[in-house]
Amino acid sequence: MSSGKLSQRAARILGAQAQTLVDKKVTIGLDGFVDEIISVVDKRESAEKFTRVPTLASFGARISAAAGKSANAELVVERVKLGGNGPIMANALAAFGTRVTYIGNLGYPNLHPVFAEFAKSATVHSIAEPGFTDALEFDDGKIMMGKHASLGEVNWENLVERVGRDELERCFVAANLIGLQNWTMLPHMSEIWEHVLTEICPKMPSQPRHTFFFDLADPEKRDPRDIRRATELIGRFQKYLDVYLGLNEKESFQIGEVLGYQGAREGEGAVQAVAEFIHEKIRTSGVVVHPRAYAVAASAAGVVTVSGPFVGKPLISTGAGDHFNAGFCLGKLLGADNEVSLQLGVGTSGYYVRTAKSPSAMELADFLQSL
Fold first, then answer.
1. Which domains does the chain have, with CATH numbers?
2. What does DSSP assign to residue 190?
3. How far apart are CA 118 and CA 109, in angstroms?
4. Cα–Cα separations (whole angstroms), residue 254 to 122, 274, 282
């Protein structure tokens, strides 16, 4: 199907079912960050005016040139916003109109002010202080510089104590969609998954099967043995739910390599191949990969690819992948196939990077109609 026809089809499906989203229950976790979106100054013209370092490549060259010497980099905070894979995805799902429950480290015992607006549109259970991220954004990418000390407090014991076992179970069993994101930065996530698998999943409804979406979040720094264990755990959830693993392009080849992938690593065909390879290894409902300009889904039905509304100079890029995840999961909440779900994913991401705003369901439908 051509990209234009697919976007129109996705818009029609979303428009026809937007009113049903208020009945969809979503539980997302488990991280939480305060994000500072930062520009790096290239040339300062006055106290108020400057030009940005345009590309990550040029900033890297500047840093490399300072080796053995020294350098000064001026950082300008453009905005402060809620961050973390889970909160950004959950905030986007709430904007669609779903009933969101969020569990994570958004401030404890008091919620951090940056999450106050989010807490008006979602039920929030916060169990620890947030992490902090300096997000240096460029036209061709970004560097996420994180402070993660509080993430060690996100563990099963604190979940049970500070949320309550009965409430924790209810949050999972009642949810049409579950997403426990940012495995890489949460050192106790695999242990939490084990507890959910053994103590909660057997109580899940067998019909209709609900959806579980995973985003590992740049696992490069984790030991390959830990990554393999994580993918094995993800595969075990398929017994109880329809499981999807979401990856960006870089992550897909990282995971593929750990699982034994030895194919090409450049181009759309390579992305399709590694998505199919990972799916064959972990045997979930699907593996989704989202490079900047398109997205791929591999499942038992085959591999599908959808072009995205790519923009060369985004207003914001931090959180684009989490918005893609929210849009893809929106498709699954509506019962859509992978192709339509991918279109909703790239559409949500495309809307967000143009506006720095999460779209409502009807704003997304109108945006897709315009493509």
1. 3-38+82-370 (3.40.1190.20)
2. H
3. 17
4. 33, 10, 15
Determine contact, residues 85/102, Cβ cutoff 8 Å. Answer: no
* Model confidence pLDDT, tens digit, residues 222-264: 999 999 999 999 999 999 999 999 999 999 999 999 999 999 9
Query: How far is residue 6's CA from residue 272's CA, in Å, rounded to a whole number?
Result: 19
The pairing of strands 141-147 and 33-44 is: unpaired
State phi, psi for 56 to the nearest 5 degrees: -60, -35
The order of strands in the sheet holding 177-180 is 122-126, 99-104, 25-30, 177-180, 211-215, 242-247, 286-289, 294-299, 302-307
Q: Could you tell me which residues are beta bridge partners of residue 304? A: 297
pTM for this predicted structure: 0.90
166 or 313, which is more confident? 166
Q: 326 and 24 in contact (C-beta within 8 Å)? A: no
Distance (Å) of CA 309 to CA 85, 207, 318, 342, 354 = 22, 36, 17, 12, 10
Q: What is the pLDDT of residue 4?
A: 73
Q: E-assigned strands of 91-230?
A: 99-104, 122-126, 131-138, 141-147, 177-180, 211-215
Tell how strand 50-52 and strand 33-44 pair up.
antiparallel
Mean pLDDT of the region 40-46: 96
| 212: helix, strand or coil | strand
Percent of the chain whose pLDDT exceeds 90: 94
Q: Which residue has the tokens 């699907």?
A: 286
Per-residue confidence (pLDDT) for residue 312, from 0 to 100: 83
Contact 28/101 with Cβ under 8 angstroms?
A: yes
